Amino acid sequence: MACLYFIVDSSTTVGKANIYLNTFTITVPSEYNIEDSGETQLQIVNKKTKERIIIKDLTKKKDIHTEMQDRLDALNANENITLIKNTTIVNKNQTYPSIYYEKVTGTINRMTFFNNYKHGFSIECSNFHDNRTIEEHTLFIIDNLRPDYKQKQS
To answer: What beta strand segments (E) does 8-130 contain?
Structure first.
């Protein structure tokens, strides 16, 4: 008796999909699909709510604090941003620095930065309507980020 498995990048019907980012795999939160992917950046979207998550592998070369400051400078220069606040997300005795900001449109947005597997990463959540959902999705992604051992690890 033979078994056949079909592995997909996104699924709208069954469970959660695994997707690839550089040399890592990430489990996508329910109801999200891949909108755009590249070697070091991945964009997923919830088509019902228009919530968008961009995950970036900053590789070993970029310091997360430098990246966070660069992003903060860009937000401060943007006139469509009404509120900017440095915050953190705390989970399992880990603290992740993040930038919370609101746009003129009234949506809630957050960028979170972290190190894992000797790489820096950022997760940018936009077009959300409550902060709790952002934190849940961010922590879900962080907890489900794994090296893809089928690829050469750098």
So the answer is: 18-21, 24-27, 33-37, 41-45, 52-59, 81-91, 94-103, 108-116, 119-128
